[in-house]
Amino acid sequence: MNTAERAVVLELRGVSRVHGEGAAEVHALREIDLTLVEGELVAVMGPSGSGKSTLLTLLGGLDRPTSGEVLIEGQSLADLSTKQLAAMRRRSVGYVFQDLNLIPTLTAVENVGLPLELDGASRRTARRTALKSLEDVELAELADRFPDEMSGGQQQRVAIARALVGPRRVLLADEPTGALDSQTGEAVLRVLRKRIDRGGAGLLVTHDARHAAWADRIVFLRDGQITDTTASELSAEALLAAGRHV
Ligand SMILES: Nc1ncnc2c1ncn2[C@@H]1O[C@H](COP(=O)(O)OP(=O)(O)O)[C@@H](O)[C@H]1O
Ligand SMILES: [Mg+2]
Questions:
Q1: Which distant-in-sequence residues (6+ apart) come within 8 Å of 29 by Cβ?
Q2: What DSSP state is assigned to residue 73?
Q3: Of all residues in the chain, what percent are helix, strand and coil, respectively (each to 5)?
């Protein structure tokens, strides 16, 4: 299926974000247009201060643009009340950061199921759905381990499973492999790629060109503007077919 036929999951229309006022004004993002369709993984690269994290917080509804429009699954975030926005975030959007924010006193499956429980699911339903999400990242067998009983790469896969548990389809990852060695980082990206292929869409901020190669497209940011967009140098299918996993 070509991208034109797939459902739009995320959209930015002419989005700008200005921090501060007067002499202290910082244009973190300028007139950004970006669309992600179902099954698409887009890497964002750019120097420090270029606006990458601001882009993620706007897409996740954690911050509002100064101008322009953000849509998640066709819904304009500007039309939502604070309460509706919070509900949309809980149900649709998952984040993965370099520091994973896994809760050390909860097992892997409890960590993954937590967003569902916070959203009112029963413990049993949360566990069942969380186990499925752990299967998607090839970690079902470690479901009852605590974070400190897992490797860094395994913990990062738990964070991905939590981000995309249940109905959530939007993954926003800010340098998720930054704390991992490059082989472990690739293993995490391989799992992430397969998960996005099965549904959802993801935006991945990374400094590592090899990790960006797992994406369908790479967007380059500089001073809050998209300077270039390239198809990723190797297709994900080619990487998977070449067994570029570790
Ligand atoms: N809350 C804020 N208040 C003021 N300036 C900010 C704030 N957040 C980000 N900025 C500025 O916006 C620009 C983009 O920041 P950021 O999105 O964090 O970039 P990146 O993630 O690419 O390093 C930088 O100049 C940064 O200093
Ligand atoms: Mg950043």
A1: 15, 16, 17, 51, 54, 55, 58, 65, 224, 225
A2: T
A3: 40, 25, 35
Q: Whose CA is nearest to atom 11 of ligand 1?
A: 28
Superfamily name and number for 3-241: P-loop containing nucleotide triphosphate hydrolases (3.40.50.300)
Q: Which helix (H) or strand (E) holds 222?
A: strand 217-222
> What is the Cα–Cα distance from 170 to 102, expressed in whole angstroms?
19
Give the residue, out of 15, 18, 19, 21, with the most ligand 1 atoms within 8 A of its beta carbon, to mutate for a pocket test. Answer: 19
Q: What is the pLDDT of residue 246?
A: 31
**pLDDT value at position 117?**
93
Ligand 1 centroid distance, CA of 97 (Å): 16
The residue ranges of every structural domain in the chain are 3-241
Residue numbers of the chain with a pLDDT score lower than 50: 244-246
